[in-house]
Design a protein that fits this description.
Number of strands: 0
Number of domains: 2
Largest sheet: none
CATH topology of the largest domain: Non-ribosomal Peptide Synthetase Peptidyl Carrier Protein, Chain A
Number of helices: 9
């Protein structure tokens, strides 16, 4: 497993080994694991299925037993991003309800910041959603957040009219609007420079 790790980092200690208590609080261990998995090379080859297998291996024997028991109760056969689903199911099991409520509050109030790209905004939402146990509603709620809290007022009206569009389509619409906006600003700056040069030349030739 370590051969794919770009920095040769050691895997986290098992969260719940066969005997004994958890080595860390779940939130701390999960962050440690997510950081570890992000250092792997060949991200395209590291599919959600492979990441899930690494996660289950790192849980430890007792942790794996717990996951297998809750997975049968919580979720139908895996669909979509099975790695994210596994993290959500484990988070729902190990964290108190009050913590989930706080994390959802943070998610719902996260707005896109001025000049923050939609890719960075979506990444921030995805990170916040890890603790929210949204399950199959993740994409739908992330889409709604982008529509409600985009920093681009010019695209928001179009997004409202496409309220039932899938998350990927909404992201692509915002990215297209971002690109158009950057191009328009570049043209405007170019025109301003040209005008300034003409104005300077006109001033120079005046008697």
């Amino acid at each position: 497993m370590a051969s794919g790790n770009a920095w040769n980092l050691s895997a986290p200690e098992p969260f719940l080994p066969k005997d004994g208590e958890a080595t860390l609080r779940w939130e701390e261990w999960r962050e440690y694991f997510v950081n570890y998995i992000s250092t792997f090379e060949d991200e395209e080859e590291l599919t959600p299925e492979k990441k899930k297998k690494i996660l289950l291996h790192c849980l430890g024997a007792k942790g794996l037993k717990i996951y297998n028991s809750i997975n049968k109760k919580i979720r139908a056969p895996d669909q979509g991003d099975v790695f994210s689903h596994a993290l959500e199911d484990l988070t729902e099991y190990f964290r108190p309800a009050v913590c989930v409520a706080v994390d959802r509050f943070k998610f719902y109030h996260r707005k896109q910041q001025f000049e923050e790209s939609v890719d960075d905004y979506v990444a921030a939402l995805k990170n916040l959603a890890l603790s929210c146990t949204f399950g199959n509603l993740h994409d739908q709620l992330s889409r709604d957040q982008i529509i409600m809290h985009t920093a681009n007022p010019h695209i928001q009206e179009k997004l409202w009219s496409r309220g039932k569009a899938p998350l990927r389509e909404v992201i692509d619409m915002v990215k297209s609007a971002e690109l158009t906006g950057r191009c328009a600003k570049a043209v405007l700056r170019s025109e301003e420079k040209s005008f300034s040069k003409l104005e300077a030349n006109a001033t120079t030739v005046l008697p």
